[in-house]
Amino acid sequence: MRWTQTLIPTLRQVPKDAEAVSHQLALRAGLIHQLSSGVYSYLPLGLRVLQKIMAIVREEMDRAGASEVLLPALHPAELWKKSGRYETLGDDKIAFKNRANHEFVLGPTHEEVITQLVASSIKSFRDLPLVLYQIQNKFRDEARPRFGVIRTKEFIMKDAYSFDADEAGLDRNYQKMSEAYHKIFSRCGLSFQVVNADPGMMGGKMSQEFMVVCPYGEDRVAKSDSGDYLASLDIAQRGKPPLKPLTPPAGKPEIFDTPNLRTIEEISHRFKIKPSQMIKTIIYMADENPIAALVTGDSEVNESKLRKLISAGELRQATGKEIEAATGAPVGFAGPYGLQIPIFADWDVLSLADFVSGANEKDKHFKNVNCVRDFQPTAVGDIRFVKEGDLAPDGKGKLHLTTTMEIGHIFKLGTRYSKVLDALFLDEKGQRQPAIMGCYGIGINRILAATIEEHHDERGILWPRAIAPYAFEIITVNQGDAKSREAAEKIEAELTAGGLDVLYDDRDERAGVKFNDADLIGIPVQIIVGERNLKENRVEIKFRQTGEVRQINLNDLKKQLAQIE
Fold it and tell me: Facing residues of 34 across strands?
């Protein structure tokens, strides 16, 4: 391909509002173009990268025994309502009604659609196992699109789904997909880590995330000093901290005025009280009964941990009316002293003396509140998100938090969808059973962004060979020189005929502009055609990753380039 025949709108300056390195370089290298907030066009170079990523994904999915399908992006809303996820999606879903007044959802994921398809196709255990996958555009009304193609409203996913007759079959397919994911991300040149994670909206009993370290990611990972413990922040556990000896209480709880001061931050600022010396009381509805969760003011409740501590099937934050009914006060003034509902406290609360909390009265708070003396928790446990420096669960060292980006996620869904959508089969005894499902997703465009984040320098992108838009770029030092043009065109023709990916920069531009653009777009090998070297029947090749430069005889060029890994 010749530069003048394609679209590569490189930029010299970093676009404003582009925070992430991958966003900056993708724009500057002409890989993407923003149409609107969170919506991008992929230009020729960017599309070629995506296509190479997708080719790797397809190869490994096929090797793992999966078959490709293409499912619709347009889903009848009743299918999502039947699964119970219509409301769960909330404002993230993009839904509309057609001219016949039928409601549709633009698919953010495809569990419902694939389950409905398989439900209509399987009859008995002989039809299982079955693994299907697709590569499809997904849609989500992302509230804060950021960082280029890392967080967008429209994105490209590979999602695979396994259907098995028993748990052992699910375990085998889950392992196959895990192994395939290791191969995919390694072939794409990514350094990644696998962490245990919360299944979240997807449901199921187990999930693992494939993460890359990235300062612009939306996830955080907790890792112990020893490296023996690694988990997503959503489910990360910590060791039980030793109880600190408490000083004698300063006095009985004392009420004080806090007019219109509802938050930890407001009280801290007004009265110069550290958030760590305050208690945050959050009212929840656990199986539709009110309960209170207590954490220190500098912590956040982890609802997944809280749900496990209280053994609740359903857990949600209480509404304003429910809070007032449970506490006698409006939102922002709840506290444990005098509260008449079950109280679940974090471990840290036991080591806090004379703390400040809400007084269950409008515009009032208490000081000098102490656990056990002034209130008795129903249960105490680890119910907050871990923090930097927390004790590791095994007691060996501390936990450290790293910001990461998810590029893949695998789930053991079980019968979460097959039961409600009737994906049933007859087992060997002739009894109807729900298929046991797994789900396996990869963010295709996130791989592009993650690769740039990991592989770049001050001059531009350093593409790994496997997913580079082109393997080789031919650059003429002087396009006006007839012998240089003739040599470059001959090299392009020979390499292309030999099945090699080649971009020929045939622009009539200064050599400096071409070299800068070549480094920016990051093609792995540059073939530099100059008048001086041609006189000796040679060209220069430069390796973008290392900066190594070699002089190669033209007669040996094709053979030597074919040997470059």
Answer: 40
**CA–CA distance from 143 to each of 38, 139, 140, 156 (Å)?**
9, 12, 9, 18
The contacts found for 247-255 with CB under 8 angstroms, 24 or more apart, are: 247/353, 249/353, 249/354, 249/368, 249/370, 249/373, 250/354, 250/368, 251/368, 252/368, 253/337, 253/366, 253/367, 253/368, 253/369, 253/374, 254/366, 254/367, 254/368, 255/359, 255/361, 255/364, 255/365, 255/366
pLDDT over 90 percentage in the chain: 85
Six-digit token string for 394:
């095994």
Distance linking the first and last C-alpha atoms of the chain: 21
Instruction: List, in order, residues 6 or more apart from 493 with CB less than 8 Å away.
Output: none
- Fold for the domain defined by 14-73+108-236+402-452: BirA Bifunctional Protein; domain 2 (3.30.930)
What is the tens place of the pLDDT at every residue in 224-250?
988 788 888 988 999 998 887 767 777
Hey, where are the domains in the chain? 14-73+108-236+402-452, 254-381, 470-562
Q: What order do you get walking across the sheet with 538-543 strand by strand?
A: 502-505, 472-476, 525-529, 538-543, 549-553
Token duo for residue 340 = 């008449």
In CATH terms, 470-562 corresponds, of 3.30.40.10, 2.40.30.10, 1.20.272.10, 3.40.50.800, to: 3.40.50.800
* From 175-179, 206-210, 336-340, 461-465, the region with the lowest mean pLDDT: 206-210
CA distance 345 to 348: 8
Q: What is the tally of helices (H) and strands (E) in the chain?
A: 14, 31
CATH superfamily of the domain spanning 254-381: YbaK/aminoacyl-tRNA synthetase-associated domain (3.90.960.10)
- For 249-295, what is each residue's pLDDT tens digit? 778 899 999 999 999 999 999 999 999 999 999 999 999 999 999 99
Sheet with 315-317: list strands edge to edge: 315-317, 279-286, 289-296, 343-346, 379-381
